[in-house]
Design goal:
The chain is an alpha+beta fold and 448 residues long. Helices cover 69% and strands 10% of the residues. The strands form two sheets. It has a six-stranded mixed sheet with strand order 2-3-1-6-7-8, sandwiched between helices.
């Protein structure tokens, strides 16, 4: 027997599938036999109607002795003969019936010849011949009716036997399958009961502090043997590492503290850019949403700086990606040095940075703040004993005058940043018309 609950369940599934197939096959066989019975009843009933019609036409012909009645007799006989000829299911069974029909055809032909020879025969001879033909007609009709009844009964008996055989074998198969399923279910129940009892006892002993208790895995199914093995290994390790209550509490406190520290680290990692250590895009967007919400409540102003390093790809291509990473780190450090702790500094992605100044009282300070940031970033960066100068393009947008949402605020600053890229050297474009440049060009010159 399979020593696995999973194996027994698979076996049970297979038996159930076979059980279903057997039921379906049985129903199909019974349906087929019933359909054959119905067809047989319909066929032989139609034959009997044709025979009865032929009998009626013969009676009318015997009464009238005219050509019209004779024609009807021939039509009835031809209908019966054609029906017997066309069918293909009972060819062997209706052999005698076909023979009787052929005999009837001979009698009808003799009737026609008698009518032709009526001028050469006496009336007494004609009457005797016709009486003999009537007698033979009646015998053939009766024989045909009896043959149809016999064939009908024989076919019904055969179909009944077929249905009985199908039902008998189906019943035996179903009984066998049901007994097999019952045996499998009983085996699963017994083995599960034993395995569950031992696992339950082991857990109960463990709850009382009995770390030396072992679960006996002998004669258990595979799944319960695995559970017992895991349980025994667990209790052995617990027994080997058993400590005092105070030491256990200290270990719990230590692990709790470690989990809290890891949680804080994960929180920092989820909100900090892995390269620069400033806010990543996710944390940046969340912080901007919070500042805008507070600004709406307090009816304050917000300024957002969008910065981009000009030709940063050329830096990576010319002196290497490591130097490019160093540039991004230096830019991040200088941005943090130029801002307050209450301001938001984050890396939006690639070489794009965002600074958000919340709760601004006067936008007049923004130009000075932008120039301070540009001046800080214009100082050459020392990389591998050499100095590298970079150009920064900056765009500034305002809340609530230019945008009311985080996305629109960033988009507006981004558009101003691209306008600033049109300026040679580090530059900033902000507001609707105000333009500043590190070379301190005036607005009139830039508009030219």
């Amino acid at each position: 027997m399979v020593n696995s609950i999973n194996g027994k369940l698979i076996l049970l599934l297979c038996v159930s599938f076979i059980f279903t197939l057997l039921l379906s096959f049985s129903f199909l066989q019974i349906h087929s036999a019933q359909h054959k019975t119905t067809d047989a009843l319909r066929f032989f009933s139609g034959l009997q109607q044709n025979i009865d019609d032929l009998r009626s036409q013969l009676w009318l012909f015997a009464q009238r002795q005219d050509s019209a009645s004779y024609t009807q007799v021939k039509l009835s006989h031809q209908t019966l003969a054609l029906k017997l000829e066309k069918q293909s299911f009972y060819t062997q069974r209706i052999f005698n019936l076909k023979k009787l029909t052929d005999d009837m055809a001979s009698l009808i032909s003799q009737e026609q010849r008698l009518s032709i020879q009526s001028n050469r025969l006496s009336e007494q001879q004609i009457n005797q011949a016709r009486q003999l033909l009537r007698y033979r007609y009646n015998i053939l009709i009766e024989n045909m009716s009896e043959e149809v009844a016999y064939l009908n009964k024989k076919t019904l008996d055969s179909n009944e036997l077929s249905i009985t055989s199908v039902m008998l074998y189906s019943a035996l198969g179903l009984i066998f399958a049901a007994m097999f399923v019952l045996a499998i279910n009983f085996s699963i129940y017994q083995r599960f009961k034993i395995g569950f009892g031992r696992i339950k006892l082991g857990i109960h002993e463990l709850s009382k502090g009995e770390l030396t208790h072992k679960i006996n895995s002998e004669n258990l199914d595979t799944e319960f043997r695995m559970l017992a093995s895991f349980f025994n290994n667990m209790t052995s390790k617990l027994d080997a590492s058993m400590v005092s209550k105070q030491a256990l509490q200290q270990e719990v406190d230590r692990q709790t503290s470690e989990l809290e520290r890891q949680k804080q680290q994960l929180l920092i990692l989820s909100e900090k850019d892995h390269l620069t250590g400033i806010m990543n895009r996710r944390a940046l967007e969340k912080a901007i949403d919070s500042i805008l919400l507070n600004a709406k409540i307090s009816q304050s102003k917000v300024a957002l700086f969008f910065l981009d390093i000009d030709d940063f790809k050329n830096i990576n291509d010319s002196i290497g990606h490591d130097a490019g990473d160093e540039v991004l780190q230096q830019v991040s450090s200088r941005l943090q040095a130029c801002t307050r702790k209450s301001d938001i500094v984050g890396r939006l992605g690639g070489d794009e940075f965002v600074i958000c100044l919340g709760l601004v009282d006067n936008f007049d300070q923004i130009a000075h703040k932008a120039q301070t940031i540009l001046d800080s970033l214009s100082t050459p960066i020392r990389i591998n004993h050499s100095e590298l100068s970079i150009n920064i393009s900056m765009g500034v947008s305002y809340f609530p005058f230019q945008a009311n949402t985080r996305d629109s605020l960033i988009k507006q600053a981004d558009e101003f940043m691209y306008k600033a890229k049109q300026i040679k050297g580090s530059g900033c474009f902000y507001g609707q018309e105000l333009l500043a440049h590190v070379d301190l060009l005036d607005a009139a010159q830039l508009n030219k």
